[in-house]
Amino acid sequence: METVHLYKARRWTGWFNSPGSYSVGKHYGRLANSRFWNGMFPGPNTEPTVYIGLDGKCGPMYFASQSGTFLKQTGHLAYLLMQRCKDQRAVVVEGRKTRANKVTILEMPDIKFDAAAETSLTIHARDGFHKHVAFLPIATSVATCIFCAWGDDWYCFSLILLGILINGISCFVIGSASIILQSVAPSKNAPPGDGILMDGNHVIVVLGKERNVLAITQGKFQLEYRPWIRMRIKKKRRNRAIVGDGIHHRFGRKDAESGSETQSDEDAEINNEYAAIGFCSLLLVIQFLTQLLLIPQGTLFGQVMFLTSFAVSWVYNLFLSSMDKEYLQEELLVQAMNLSEDYMKTYKLGTRTAAAVFACLALQPDCEYGEWENRGFKPEEILRQFIPNDTHVWAVWRDQVLEQMKRSQPTLQSFDLKACGSRIAAFNDTDKSLLSDLLLDARSAYQQYLILQVRSSSSIGNIPSSVKADEIG
Question: Which residues pair with 120 in a beta bridge?
């Protein structure tokens, strides 16, 4: 059931006698949200998107390089994107190696939101061969049902037919939802949404318009059920009267001084009842109890046919449960946003200092140093997001990196110890050795960035693969 929305036509392939109806009914019965259904299926009421697993994961930290936006925690879509980039093949950058860090540069394409809503996008489920595999349990259940009728075992015939109908109806109702990518409307005058998603030793540099980046950092999947399944109701606040207790709760009805009404129907909270899902869950529980009580009344042949339909359906359910639901969601996200490998390039750097410099360079706006402040670009803060160390050695290292970025020249003279001048006069040999290693990391990151710039330049075109990093600078 958890993958029924991820594949096209999956909701039509549930017409077989499936085991586990009691567990499925108790599980999905909690989606129904009303007093009656809460009493029937006790437990917390959760939105279907979270309950089925399309939302709820905590994403990585996000820091915008120009707008100044800082999110300590993003959402489910950013989590999926991070997992996708972690599995992507990386270009190994030569240099010193301690603990490897990966940096993915993602150039966000323009997302084509629905014309009716500027912040939502309907995602079309992917196609798969599983719908052909579903013919096996369907054919088995229908065949065993016919054999039971041929053997005059009407008990087992009725129980198998009951399982086929209830499971098919439940699969159709629960799967009758469209997956919507719901984003947030940006400000009209918002700066570019360039920023970094940081998760441990993996960083994603996101480049693009604010509206496209917001879909990743603050967007989410949402299951949009049809009205006859949602059945929206008004839930009145503080309505806690118990029938027959003789107590009438009038709190919140009228103001104590003026006597005017303090709550109207407009103040009532609108909830989705999902009564159709609750009804299907009740049918699944009834199916379990009926089959449990009446199957001993059948003949031995009918019971064998019943167990045969169960066995084949169990194997099919095992096949469905073996699918990686997280990977399927990643595929839906990549498909919806058109995030092909042309837009995502991953680089593996040997140290975190090299990764910090490389990410900072990738976020650098296409303008002169004098316009950085107007753009809101503060490279020192980006470096501190990676390495917050504030010792004298790290301070000198940051100054040298910033000096090299201000120059915007291919010569890397700022990464020599001699360029540090009198600032390292009081350093001992250990500090100088450490600073030399850090500057070497920055040099290797800068060289890889220059290669990236040359390859992406439209005037020069692609350079031969024989070009090495040590040939630049």
Answer: 182
Going by C-alpha positions, the residue among 217, 203, 222, 221 that lies closest to residue 78 is 217
Quickly list H helices, 130-174: 130-133, 135-150, 154-174
According to the 3-state scheme, what is the secondary structure of 206-274?
Answer: EECCHHHHHHHHCCEEEEEECHHHHCEEEECCCCCCCCCCCCCCCCCCECCCCCCECCCHHHCEEEECC
> Is-contact 298 156, C-beta < 8 A?
yes
Element (H, E) at 302: helix 300-321
What's the rounded Cα separation, in Å, for the pair 450 and 328?
Answer: 36
Q: Backbone dihedral region of 376: left (phi > 0), alpha (psi from -120 to 50 degrees) or beta?
A: left
pLDDT, position 410: 66
DSSP string, 375-441: HT--HHHHHHHH----SHHHHHHHHHHHHHHHHT-S--GGGSGGGGGGGGTT--HHHHHHHHHHHHH
Q: Give the type of residue at 131.
A: K
For the chain, count helices (H), then strands (E): 17, 12
pLDDT at 351: 92
What residues are paired with 104 via a beta bridge? 204, 346
Q: Is the dihedral of CA 451, 455, 457, 459 positive or negative?
A: positive
Pairing of strands 177-182, 220-225: antiparallel
pLDDT at 247: 53
Mean pLDDT in each 10-residue stretch from start to end of the chain (473 residues)? 80 90 90 86 85 88 88 92 91 89 91 80 79 89 94 93 95 90 85 90 92 91 85 55 54 48 50 87 94 92 94 92 87 87 89 92 82 82 89 89 80 76 81 89 89 66 41 40
